[in-house]
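Page header: ASSEMBLY MODEL / two components / 606 residues total.
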Amino acid sequence: MSSPVLATRPVDTRRKPPSALRNTLTIARRELRDAVRSRWFILYTLAFATLGLAVSFVSAAGAGGTGLSGFGRTTAGLINLVLLVVPLMALTAGAATVASDRERGMLAYLLAQPISRFELLLGKYIGLAGALLACLTLGLGACALILAWKGLRTSPGSLLWLSGLSFTLALGMLSVGMLISVLARRASVAVGTAIFCWLALVFVSDLALMAGAVAMRMRIETLFAVSMFNPLQVFKMWSLHAIDASIDVLGPAGLYANEEYGNALHAMFATSLAAWALIPLALSAVVFSRRSPL
Amino acid sequence: MIDIENVTRQFGRTTAVDHASLRVGAGESIALWGANGAGKTTLIRCVIGLLRHSGRITVGGHDVLREGKSARMLIGYVPQEIGFYDDLGVGESVSFFARLKGLSQAQTKDALEGVGLAMHADKRIRELSGGMKQRLALAIALLGDPPILVLDEVTASLDAVGREEFVSLLERLSGAGRTMLFASHRIDEVAALAGRVALMENGRIATVLSCRDFVMQQGNGAVLHLTVAPSMVGRAIESLRIEGFTPRVNGVGVLVPVGIEQKAAPFRVLADARIRVDDFEIVSAGRAELLSTEAAGDPFSSKNPVAMELAS
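Prediction written out in full:
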């Protein structure tokens, strides 16, 4: 073995480590590339595009591209699809990232390099967010292209809104997934917990809200306030509000919100989803900085 | 270069490192020696800044907890085993870690050549043998020519040939004036690489010896190869460890490094524990290593049931 790297050199103990931005982008780029190459990304993108197309065709065949209320059955169908698929995708991707690195010993090895824990975590978050954005763009883009090619009317504005809001929802769910990931010791536990969270958000919270509303005779403003704590409900309400300019279709709670808050609803929904993205991520950073990476 | 001052690290109620203090000067090479669980790996992880601890560790004047990035900028670290991303290419991995060390692509071209992996740059990591992965880890550790190398039992998973190659590479690195702190279980490795040896017991640094004194104390490289009934191997190891020896499991017995005037001591320990020694041989350290790997399997392998039992 030749050894050109082995020459003696004077020791400089003041070498500057790479900047936080450079480290974060290095990790983000690798995370994005790994995610895009991975099976989960390909499967989720294919599933999302296929289901999106199926929903679009069925909705359009039922009542034409644009329905009575303007936002269209197609978009409404896609909202429900996003509500099911995007949280699952983001939660599991976030949950696997730190826990699987810890399990294989890679996390400790990465942190033995000149990088801070926050830079590593933020880089992973940005990389996965990029992968989710690519997945959503490919899935919804494929839907839009094929529907346009088939001559079915869709509103590009609605699809753009839906894409943007889906990505915002994905960011929130990714943060929750990462919080699970920094807390879990094993990747399987992290992914299992993420799936449990998804079930709780998608199914249990809706049922609990309905049961609570009936059993506790919840007032309409309370019902709306409680809904604001569920990111999926917020996404649904915001999508309808953004695309249809009204959430009356949601019934009394929607009517109440429209009358009481009007245009301020955009800010309220945005704040709620931003909180879902930022608070779990901040908690993840705190937990990650204190826990052993081993 | 590395100052360890009164460092303590606990895991729950267990104290893994107990008020350890050690100074490693620039260009010096120090080995951490001790039985499994003595605290070597934990101390190394504290030096890297991976584990929070009480006390203070500085590397090149940088506190590893408060100025971790600056401290780690000076360190090349090789752990015992790394779970590299198997799907990544060898060259790709080097480039990734080079970016984390703030190096340009041009500064990485010699890294693989230095450890004899240049011809494997296009391979996937999963295609590499264990020895090659260790050399890749060393190539990554050497990126940017760091003045300090920290190694944690880096040859433990290598076969005899791979170990010999790796140690000779490390010898050249040590000779080139790098500061080295490394943990090892092997006398020959310590003799080849270390200037001083810190003996660790129960998380404490019991004493620091010159390498010469250490080798003398450990039996000038002599090792007793004791043959006992297979069912007694576990108990024999346990009894010897309690008495301060550092025995290793061998497929047909036990290897015990012994001091010059200590060769009868393991027999007394085993007799007290009512363990019959069927046969014995005094072997050199080099031969002892061969015996380790020639037996039913590598004694440190996870496939060795006795080793597994002891590890647990």
